[in-house]
């Protein structure tokens, strides 16, 4: 007995389907064979009875002599020819016996009704399987007798029974072959699945270096490849996580060391106001750095858990980029980097101003970080089409290699770990852009620079509220 499982289901289903198909085919085959044999007998008798009827009409003699002549000429081998009255009483027979009995089978009434009667069944007395065919004989335009042929179909039934046995044997052989084939097919599916299950159990225990081996095809091959890829990605993610922990530990330790060192120094006292002011400035700067790191990690956690809330409104693209330039102008000035703004007037995008500022601050800060001294960074905004705005941050810095370009938006990934950071900036920016219903594309060539393009949905500006009188607002113009 096969134990419960997919193997048993496959084998049983295959055998059941083939068994039902064979049963249907054999039943139809046997019915056709039986019909063919019975119809052959019936057609032969029908031809003979029609000739006998024709002979009787030509003889035009309504006498016992003509009936005996009819019996002699048109008798068939292994067949009894009977002449009956219209009520079914037997008058004479080709066997020479004239039993005093009335034929009550259905073929006689059918013949009297004007057709050729046919009946198949067991003959009373002998219990032999027979076929009876009857037809009325006419004389001078009126019905006078019923001509009836009775033949045994025992041999036909025996032949049909033998054919049935042979068909059943062939069907049983086919079922055995199908069972063997289904076992082989089931094993070809179950063995790889058992292997995959065993390897998956090892992976569940944390052994992600193990792989599913075997050249499996079709869906099972795809499943094996997917699990191997999953294990590979988990190993890579774990490595990235370990690198991140190492990196963030270093990033956190550096400002904490500075804060602790200057705190102890200031507590000891004996320093002039200038040194005290310098120490407090360093403590404040490193505290801001720590806050920035923590906020970046918190933002990533919120995005990862789909808890980031956006305050959607109309954001001016030019004003947003101007604010980015003002925030990073001092940092860029230290490397003599020129920040250039090229933005069309009247472009408003649908989004959260603070989160979009976070995105472009990160992109522009990366551009400043990886650009050489004396270079330029372009920030531009224009209408891409009727529904989208195209906002670009383009530098002429070190660029990104093709190997790293596909991974720069992965969380914790850093192209150059020596430059610091958590490796979350681009991953957060990518997710924030997607939360706004936009897309972010990165194009880069090693040694020639990087171009980051953000596509956001256009919207109409929100009308300013009416004021009691004219108000003078400071304006900004030109290029920074």
Summarize the structure.
53% of the residues lie in helices and 17% in strands.
Notes on the structure:
Keywords: ATP-binding, Cell membrane, Kinase, Membrane, Nucleotide-binding, Phosphoprotein, Transferase, Transmembrane, Transmembrane helix, Two-component regulatory system. The chain folds into 3 domains: 6-158, Beta-Lactamase, CATH 3.30.450; 218-304, Helix Hairpins, CATH 1.10.287.130; 313-457, 2-Layer Sandwich (Heat Shock Protein 90). The longest helix is centred in the first third of the chain and has 54 residues, at 6-59. With 480 residues, it is of the alpha+beta class. It has helices at 6-59, 64-74, 107-112, 154-204, 218-268, 273-304, 317-334, 353-369, 402-405, 425-435, and strands at residues 79-84, 90-93, 117-122, 129-139, 142-152, 313-316, 338-343, 348-351, 376-383, 388-394, 439-445, 449-457.
Helix and strand layout, with pairings?
Elements: H1 6-59, H2 64-74, E1 79-84, E2 90-93, H3 107-112, E3 117-122, E4 129-139, E5 142-152, H4 154-204, H5 218-268, H6 273-304, E6 313-316, H7 317-334, E7 338-343, E8 348-351, H8 353-369, E9 376-383, E10 388-394, H9 402-405, H10 425-435, E11 439-445, E12 449-457
Parallel strand pairs: 7-9
Antiparallel strand pairs: 1-2, 1-5, 3-4, 4-5, 6-8, 9-10, 10-12, 11-12
Highlighted features:
17% strand; Heat Shock Protein 90; Helix Hairpins; alpha+beta; 10 helices; disordered C terminus; 480 residues; five-stranded antiparallel sheet
């Amino acid at each position: 007995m096969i134990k419960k499982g997919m193997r048993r289901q496959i084998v049983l289903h295959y055998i059941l389907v083939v068994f039902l198909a064979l049963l249907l085919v054999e039943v139809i085959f046997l019915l056709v064979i039986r019909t063919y044999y019975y119809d052959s007998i019936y057609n032969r008798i029908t031809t003979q009875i029609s000739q006998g009827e024709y002979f009787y009409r030509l003889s035009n003699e309504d006498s016992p002599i003509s009936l005996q002549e009819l019996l002699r000429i048109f008798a068939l081998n292994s067949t009894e020819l009977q002449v009956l009255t219209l009520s079914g009483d037997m008058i004479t027979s080709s066997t020479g016996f004239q039993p005093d009995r009335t034929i009550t089978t259905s073929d006689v009434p059918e013949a009297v009704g004007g057709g050729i009667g046919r009946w198949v069944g067991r003959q009373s007395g002998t219990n032999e399987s027979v076929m009876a065919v009857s037809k009325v004989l006419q004389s001078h335009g009126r019905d006078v007798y019923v001509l009836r042929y009775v033949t045994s179909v025992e041999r036909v039934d025996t032949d049909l029974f033998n054919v049935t046995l042979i068909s059943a044997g062939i069907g049983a052989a086919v079922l055995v072959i199908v069972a063997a084939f289904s076992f082989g097919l089931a094993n070809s599916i179950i063995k790889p699945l058992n292997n995959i299950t065993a390897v998956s159990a090892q992976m569940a225990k944390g052994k992600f270096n193990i792989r599913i081996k075997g050249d499996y095809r079709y869906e099972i091959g795809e499943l094996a490849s997917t699990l191997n890829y999953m294990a590979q990605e988990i190993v890579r993610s774990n490595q990235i996580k370990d690198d991140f922990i190492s990196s963030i530990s270093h990033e956190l330790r550096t400002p904490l060391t500075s804060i602790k060192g200057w705190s102890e120094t200031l507590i000891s006292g004996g320093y002039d106001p200038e040194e005290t002011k310098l120490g407090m400035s360093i403590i404040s700067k490193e505290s801001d750095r720590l806050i920035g790191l923590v906020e970046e990690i918190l933002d990533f956690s919120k995005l990862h858990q789909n808890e980031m809330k956006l305050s959607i409104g109309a954001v001016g693209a030019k004003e947003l980029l101007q604010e980015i330039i003002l925030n990073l102008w001092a940092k860029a000035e230290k490397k003599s980097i020129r920040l250039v703004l090229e933005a069309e007037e009247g472009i408003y995008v649908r989004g959260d101003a603070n989160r979009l500022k976070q995105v472009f601050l990160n992109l522009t800060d990366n551009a400043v970080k990886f650009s050489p001294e004396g270079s330029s960074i372009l920030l531009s905004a224009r209408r891409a089409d009727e529904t989208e705005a195209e906002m670009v941050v383009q530098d002429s810095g070190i660029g990104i290699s093709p190997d790293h370009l596909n991974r720069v938006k992965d969380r914790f990934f850093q192209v150059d770990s020596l430059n610091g950071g958590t490796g979350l900036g681009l991953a957060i920016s990518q997710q924030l852009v997607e939360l706004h219903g936009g897309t972010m594309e990165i194009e880069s060539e090693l040694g020639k620079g990087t171009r980051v393009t953000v596509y956001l949905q256009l919207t109409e500006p929100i009308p300013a509220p009416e004021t009691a009188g004219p108000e003078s607002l400071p304006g900004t113009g030109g290029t920074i």
